[in-house]
Design brief:
Elements (H helix, E strand, L loop, with lengths): L1 H16 L7 E5 L7 E3 L2 E3 L1 H13 L3 E5 L2 H10 L3 E6 L10 E16 L9 H4 L4 E4 L3 H8 L5 E4 L21 E5 H10 L5 E16 L5 H17 L1 H12 L3
Parallel strand pairs: 1-4, 1-5, 7-8, 7-9
Antiparallel strand pairs: 2-3, 5-10, 6-9, 6-10
Helix pairs in contact: 1-2, 2-7
Length: about 250
């Protein structure tokens, strides 16, 4: 595990300091723990380690870069030999990417300040409230498909907790935060927040590696076969278990 983490760190630092070689597949991601995030200036996370190992086994050179999700999402659609992780495979995204995975599973939830007293038992109950989320993120796309349209978009997930309020009339604020349950735990702990609570679990969604549609089928197949081999020989489970332990309540 330590060796794998160090390899991630090296890939990340190289991506920041040198130009990517023409043959390398560029992997873009965001700060979204425990799946992909930086720690001591190194890119780590369970999805990161899975993707690194897939590249090694498939003999696919990779460079890594971390940036706000909207930027990564747009770049992956524009640039050949580029992939993004970790992301949900929604119907409206199916044809704009090629897919490898799933890498992991992500349980989504709606969160509020602890003083939030209104009862929310389903998505319909949440429609009157302002919901903060990340631009181009699957969660807000899905909420809009579910007829929740009062969405306030930001570039990074960590910005939303500071916008939460109990005052429905406060400007530049939100009443609810949509994020992953694991991500919320990490962000709240890291920022020493004690006044955020889960109000509704809404969905359990697989997370994938999504690549530019022009990426060769041979590369997609090689990466998919590598992931299948990791599941078969236990390497995948070892990575998942290590982060389950690290992020246990």
């Amino acid at each position: 595990m330590l060796k794998m983490t160090m390899r991630c760190a090296v890939c990340f630092l190289l991506a920041l300091t040198v130009s990517a070689p023409a043959f390398a597949l560029q992997m873009l991601t965001e700060e979204y723990p425990p799946y992909n995030y930086t720690e001591n200036k190194a890119l780590i996370g369970l999805s990161t380690e899975i993707v690194v190992e897939m590249g090694k086994r498939a003999n696919v050179p990779m460079t890594f870069a971390i940036m706000p999700w909207p930027d990564a999402y747009e770049q992956t659609q524009r640039k050949v030999e580029t992939c993004i992780f970790s992301t949900a495979r929604l119907v409206n995204r199916e044809r704009i990417f090629k897919w490898v995975g799933p890498l992991a599973s992500n349980e989504w939830g709606l969160f509020a300040k602890k003083g939030f007293a209104d009862k929310i038992t389903n998505l319909a109950d949440a429609r009157p409230y302002r919901i903060g989320g990340v631009t181009n993120d699957a969660k807000i796309m899905w909420l809009r498909d579910m007829a929740l349209t009062n969405i306030v978009e930001v570039k990074e997930d960590k910005l939303v907790p500071g916008m939460l309020t109990l005052d429905r009339k406060k400007l530049d604020a939100v009443d609810l935060w949509v994020t992953g349950i694991n991500a919320e735990k990490f962000i709240v702990t890291k920022n020493k927040l004690k006044d955020v609570k889960l109000v509704l679990k809404i969905k359990d969604e697989p997370m994938w590696l999504a690549c530019h549609p022009s990426l060769s089928e041979a590369t997609i197949t090689s990466l998919s076969n590598a992931l299948a081999a990791m599941r078969k020989d236990g390497a995948y489970k070892t990575i998942i278990d290590s982060y389950d332990k690290k992020f246990a309540p």
